[in-house]
Amino acid sequence: xxxxxxxxxxxxxxxxxxxxxxxxxxxxxxxxxxxxxxxxxxxxxxxxxxxxxxxxxxxxxxxxxxxxxxxxxxxxxxxxxxxxxxxxxxxxxxxxxxxxxxxxxxxxxxxxxxxxxxxxxxxxxxxxxxxxxxxxxxxxxxxxxxxxxxxxxxxxxxxxxxxxxxxxxxxxxxxxxxxxxxxxxxxxxxxxxxxxxxxxxxxxxxxxxxxxxxxxxxxxxxxx
Length: 224
Description:
Blueprint: H1 2-22, E1 35-37, E2 43-51, E3 68-76, H2 89-94, H3 98-125, H4 139-155, E4 164-167, H5 169-176, H6 181-184, E5 192-195, E6 205-207, E7 216-218
Parallel strand pairs: 4-5
Antiparallel strand pairs: 1-2, 2-3, 6-7
Helix pairs in contact: 1-3
C-alpha cells in the first residue's frame, strides 16, 4: 500500500499536467478553492455563496445589516470511469520510471481527454434552457449567430474574461477567410477561442461499460 501511495504521488501531477495541456474543456474546471472532498463515496462538495445587496447608511444606526452565507452543496458524480494500466515493474525501473510516465501520458491524451471533452460538451448541449439551432452553416450564418451570442452575454452581464467560444476548425476557418474585418471582429468578443475536433463535438454520446467495448461513441441521433 505504501508503494502504491508513493507511485500515485509521483505520477498524478504528471498526468494532471497532460490533461490540462491537452483538454479543450479544462478551461471550464472549477476553482479548486470552491470544491472539496465529501465524506460520501462518489460525491464532492461545492461552495454556494449568497449575499444581500446594499442598503441605506443611517447616521443613527450605521450600516444596513445584510446577510452573507456560505454553504457546501453535496453533488453526486454523474459517472465514475476507470481503467487499469499494466506496466512491468522491472521494465519501468530500467527505464528510470519513464515507461509508465509515457504510457500514462499517452492514455490521458488519447483516451481520457477526448472522452472528458465529449462528455462535457454533450452535457452542456443537453442542459435545459440551452438554445439549440440546426441549420445549414456558412460564414455569414456563423458570424450572425456569434454576434447574437455576444449580445446575449452582454445583456446577462457575463464577465468579459469568462466568454469561451468552442468551435470546429472548419467553422473558424470560414470566419477567418472572410474579407471584411467587421465580420472577423466578432471573434474579439470572446476571451478564449478553443477549436474542438468533430470527433468529440457531438450533441450526445454513449459511454461504453468496458465489458465488450471501451471509451465512447456518438449516441443514436446525435448531431455535430
